[in-house]
Amino acid sequence: MPHIxxxxxxxxxxxxxxxxxxxxxxxxxxxxxxxxxxxxxxQQQFTDISAKIERLEAAERxxxxxxxxxxxxxxxxxxxxxxEPKQYTGxxxxxxxxxxxxxxxxxxxxxxxxxxxxxxxxxSMAISTAAASGGVLIPQxxxxxxxxxxxxxxxxxxxxxxxxxxxxxxxxxxxxxxxATASYTGENKDAKTSETRFDDVKLTAKTLxxxxxxxxxxxxxxxFNVEQLVLQDILTAISxxxxxxxMRDDGNGGMIDVKLRSMR
Length: 264
Prior knowledge:
2 domains; two-stranded antiparallel ribbon
């Protein structure tokens, strides 16, 4: 005997065929004799399957009414507890990225994935907060973790470059544009005058995006190894682009490299 769900699928398929023929008629077309016969047959099949589904559902309801409850065992019910996720530097940002990918951009689904599948309540709360604030209130520690990890991967950062936060996206810093000069001179000769010159450096925040492809199959195997794979991919993409910006960008649509900045 066919299962109820199978009958419902069959009925849905028949309904699609009926709607296709009805669309032809509704759009001003004329059904051929064969199509009219097919339409009548499909209607009859739809009615027959619907009646069969109703009988099976009635039989299930009757069986449920006379069913006897299963006697409870003496053992206490088991409690399934998910293991706490491993915490490490970059874990929060990685799980946030995976959750947003799993939710296909829907932050509510992403928060649910972080809570139920990754078992990371802090990331789930961060996503929920971001959904209500347009992403402005993502905790500082999430992107600070990534910046910390980039220090060992980016050449310029490794040389000791100091990151400066730009809360409002802009900042003006004073700098020494020219310093005092020294020179050799003869006896009783006048010394050459020199002075220190100052000007300002205007810093403007730039947006750097790393697009990391993550398949649904990979997300479904969420775990430490998969998280590390995603994290390393993100760090590699960002570090390579940052080094290029630090050393070769000319300011057109991006940053100004160290050489050009020092000449201005």
